Amino acid sequence: MASERNTNFIKIDGVSHTFQTATGNLPVLDDLSLSVPKNGFTAIVGPSGCGKSTVTRLIAGLLRPNIGGVWLKGEPVNSPRDIVGMAFQNPVLLEWRSILKNVMLPLEIVPNSLSSVAREQRALDLLKLVGLSGFEDKKPSELSGGMRQRASLCRALVHKPEILILDEPFGALDAFTREDLWQTMHQLREKEPFTGVLITHDLREAIFLADEVVVLSGRPATTQFKQEMMERGPRSIDQLYTPRAMETLNILREQIKIARQNEGTVS
Ligand SMILES: Nc1ncnc2c1ncn2[C@@H]1O[C@H](COP(=O)(O)OP(=O)(O)OP(=O)(O)O)[C@@H](O)[C@H]1O
Ligand SMILES: [Mg+2]
């Protein structure tokens, strides 16, 4: 039973979901199933608007599917759970709070037994790990976009969630800052393992960070293709330029092309 829980730490089973909109029903997910093992890291890619963010909302318990179910650690998800941390493309940091106080915010909301000194230390440790020591007292607007995203990752992880959901967290950053943050992600995972789901449009990012890449079909999305990565854990950017990585990139690119061609063929 424990091993079933670990293999399917995150389990999405036969999920179909339709939004009711002013212009009619919009089927978004169609019999979608996927699972992520404990401490695994899955990247989800797919055409724009196919339903990726909807999948993250289902895992986070912010939305319940019309059909099928979502389980975390073997328990059905019916509402938001504090074992889940989230980070998005635009880090929504509160301008009236310092970076340190922004990072500490979840510790004020999620029940925990940490003293105020321990809470501050936890936030300071994370900020140090992502290279933001010395910026604790700055306001969000005093930081660059990459620094704000680092702070946002710290905030998502400060309460030690077992699951981290990332919805295009690096999408708005320049290529070099993005690669730096990829390395930071590996460091964070190595220090404190968590089970991750990454939504991205960047196939290189998916290959670099994930253990497995799942390609969703065009809307209504279902699992079209899965590709296990050869590497696990930290890797060097150079590995993205090996023939094997190039081959994987081409396979995934081809799958995205298929997903986009098939878009809208099911209604
Ligand atoms: N609450 C909602 N009510 C109605 N329609 C919605 C709602 N949320 C999302 N949609 C629609 O569902 C579809 C899928 O949205 P979703 O945000 O999941 O796509 P996505 O794959 O994350 O897109 P992108 O790659 O552009 O971020 C879109 O057509 C969107 O307009
Ligand atoms: Mg989205």
Secondary structure blueprint with pairings:
Blueprint: H1 2-7, E1 10-21, E2 24-36, E3 41-45, H2 52-59, E4 67-72, E5 75-76, E6 84-88, H3 99-109, H4 116-129, H5 145-157, E7 163-167, H6 175-191, E8 195-199, H7 203-209, E9 212-216, E10 223-228, H8 243-261
Parallel strand pairs: 3-8, 3-9, 6-7, 7-8
Antiparallel strand pairs: 1-2, 1-4, 4-5, 9-10
This protein binds adenosine-5'-triphosphate (ATP) and magnesium ion.
Question: Which key terms come to mind for this protein?
Answer:
267 residues; alpha/beta; 4-stranded antiparallel beta sheet; 36% helix; binds adenosine-5'-triphosphate
Would you give an account of this structure?
- Helix 3 packs across helix 4.
- 36% of the residues lie in helices and 24% in strands.
- It has a domain of 139 residues: Rossmann fold.
- It is an alpha/beta fold and 267 residues long.
- The termini are far apart.
- The model has no long low-confidence stretch (mean pLDDT 93).
- The protein binds adenosine-5'-triphosphate and magnesium ion.
